[in-house]
């Protein structure tokens, strides 16, 4: 994203009260960004290329977390 990082967008969404589960997908793996995303509550941080099973597991976690918040 040219104007801001995914981490910055995540922070803005949280400040505005949005609690949508977020899965980060990047072509540029970075351990610092990975750690920052997970500490801030991201569901997963995937680096390309990744396999479908990994994405499927992340989506399952995101859906379960989201369902728990709406109870």
| Uncertain residue segments | none
What is the count of β-strands? 2
- CATH class descriptor: Alpha Beta
Task: Determine the strand fraction and express it as a percent band.
Answer: 5-15%
Order of helices and strands: HEHEH
Looking at CATH, which topology would you report? Rossmann fold
Name of the CATH architecture: 3-Layer(aba) Sandwich
- The percentage helix is 40-55%
Radius of gyration, rounded?
A: 12 Å
Q: Supply the helix-strand structural class.
A: mainly alpha
Task: State the end-to-end CA separation.
Answer: 33 Å
Number of helices: 3
Q: How would you state the average pLDDT, rounded?
A: 90
Task: Give a written overview of the molecule.
With 71 residues, the chain is mainly α. The protein has a single domain (6-70), classed as Rossmann fold (3-Layer(aba) Sandwich), CATH 3.40.50. The protein is 54% helix and 11% strand. It has three helices and two strands; from the N terminus they run αβαβα. It has helices spanning 6-15, 31-39, 52-70, and strands at residues 23-26, 44-47. The chain has a two-stranded parallel sheet with strand order 1-2. β1, α2 and β2 (44-47) form a beta-alpha-beta unit. The termini are far apart.
């Amino acid at each position: 994203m040219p104007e801001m990082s995914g981490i910055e967008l995540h922070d803005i969404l949280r400040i505005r009260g949005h609690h949508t589960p977020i899965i980060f997908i990047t072509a540029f793996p970075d351990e610092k960004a990975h750690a920052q995303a997970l500490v801030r509550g991201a569901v997963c941080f995937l680096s390309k290329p990744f396999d479908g099973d990994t994405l499927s597991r992340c989506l399952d976690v995101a859906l379960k977390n989201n369902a728990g918040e709406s109870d």
